[in-house]
Amino acid sequence: MSKEKIFIDDLKIIKNNKGNIFKFLDKKNKTFNNFGEIYISEIKQNKVKAWKLHKEMIMNLVVPVGHVKFVFFNTDFELIYDIVIGENNYKKINVLPSIWFGFKGIDKKNLVLNFSNIIHSDKESLNLDLNTINYEW
Questions:
Q1: pLDDT tens digit string along 127-137?
Q2: Would you list the DSSP string of 44-101?
Q3: Most CB within 10 Å of its CB: which of 65, 70, 82, 122?
Q4: Which residues contact 76 (CB under 8 A, 6 or more apart)?
Q5: CA distance 106 to 112
Q6: In this structure, what are the phi and psi dihedrals at residue 24, rounded to the nearest 5 degrees?
């Protein structure tokens, strides 16, 4: 499986007795590609949001609350990567354009944060129905 458009980084959690600090991204990071916007998506337990492809957007995804399974396919609908990240597996996923992706909520409360290089636009993304890509969630 080709993973040339998906990069997974371990992230640092700074322990603090008043509440931990979860590092995410700074401009020195090798996957930093400008700033467009930051948004948070909620995904409910056992719900799936799929399938989307960004033609221009570079995503930096992190799950600071809960756990979320991410699945990535190339444009030939070949599985590239699937991974669960979240509070107990704190990582950042950097996704380059032209990758189909979807995600599923694992816990009761799940938040996905996306730090992207451009502002979201429906004109630069494509969507498919969930059953279009054969994947067993």
A1: 999 999 999 99
A2: -BT-EEEEEEESSPPEEEEEEESEEEEEEE-TT--EEEEEEEETTB-EEEEE-SS-EE
A3: 70
A4: none
A5: 12
A6: -130, -65
